[in-house]
Specification:
By secondary structure, the protein is α/β, with parallel strands linked by helices. A hairpin with a 2-residue loop joins strand 4 and strand 5. Helix 3 packs parallel to helix 7. It binds adenosine-5'-triphosphate. Adenosine-5'-triphosphate (ATP) binds next to strand 2 and helix 1. Adenosine-5'-triphosphate binds next to strand 2 and helix 1. It holds the Pfam family ABC_tran. This is ABC transporter ATP-binding protein. GO terms for molecular function: ATP binding.
Length: 236
């Protein structure tokens, strides 16, 4: 269980998150819905050790606190982040980018097996394994970013707006791959503005508004929730 409790985060005087509590069980898919600037990326950054929360915040994995764990050690704990903007290395090939993800100790024994799994998930990466990543399309680069995160053998995969800037057909393809990742038992923590597709793969969701959790429910219930409809799905 990944548990975030009373998490607050500030940038100077700006309180980006206040008293945020979110739980993700093993194998579960949870989506955080929120408008631009709501604090979604900040939440993932705090879990990933990329931003330091205010005292009194708690982030733990299976009862062990993650606070103070530097970002480069987080993959060792079984948590992987696909950051907004992907964070891939454009001047390296697909293969080289994937290999960078296999660095954690927990990943080394299963490197070949995981590589095969990723090429099975994204056949396009197998066809282009020697291609420089900067010459690839946005969708392909997102596949590389997800593939690299999966190379670390995560139990929890965090994705920051994977659909951003991609054509609808590519988004559909990516989410089909994420469904297959779910079936391997990996828990997903998804931050998205594409509400309908993310609710279609999620078990539960939270609504984040101006740094506060203002609601949470099952994905089924959120699909028909009036506030969600109004805020995100173009309802009235
Ligand atoms: P988006 O979808 O636009 O990325 P978000 O929900 O992910 O939005 P965050 O990126 O977490 O939101 O930002 C939350 C708030 O904190 C915003 O008001 C943002 O301007 C501010 N913020 C984020 N990063 C920093 C930073 N490094 N320094 C100062 N303020 C920041």
């Amino acid at each position: 269980m990944l548990e975030i409790e009373t998490l607050s985060l500030r940038y100077g005087r700006h309180l980006a998150l206040e008293n945020v509590s979110v739980k993700i069980a093993e194998g579960e898919t949870v989506v955080i819905l929120g408008a631009n600037g709501a604090g979604k990326s900040s939440l993932l950054k705090a879990i990933g050790g990329l931003a330091r929360p205010v005292a009194g915040s708690k982030i733990s994995l299976d009862g062990q606190s993650l606070l103070g764990t530097p970002s480069h050690k987080i993959p060792e704990t079984g948590i992987a982040l696909v950051p907004e903007g992907r964070g891939v290395f454009g001047d390296l090939t697909v293969e080289e980018n994937l290999l960078l993800g296999a660095n954690p100790k927990r990943a080394r024994a299963t490197e070949a097996e995981r590589n095969a799994l990723i090429f099975d998930l994204f056949p396009r990466l197998a066809e282009r394994k020697r291609q420089m990543v900067r010459t690839m399309s946005g969708g392909e680069q997102q596949m590389v970013a997800i593939g690299r995160a999966l190379m670390s053998n995560p139990k929890y995969l965090m994705l920051d707006e994977p659909s951003l800037g991609l054509a609808p057909i590519v988004v559909t393809e990516l989410f089909a791959a994420l469904k297959r990742v779910q079936k391997t038992g990996v828990a997903l923590l998804l931050v998205e503005q594409n509400v309908s597709i993310s609710l279609s793969i999620a078990d539960r969701g939270y609504l984040l508004e101006a740094g506060h959790i203002v609601g949470s429910d099952t994905a089924e219930a959120l699909k028909t929730d009036a506030a969600v409809q109004q805020a995100f799905l173009g309802g009235t």
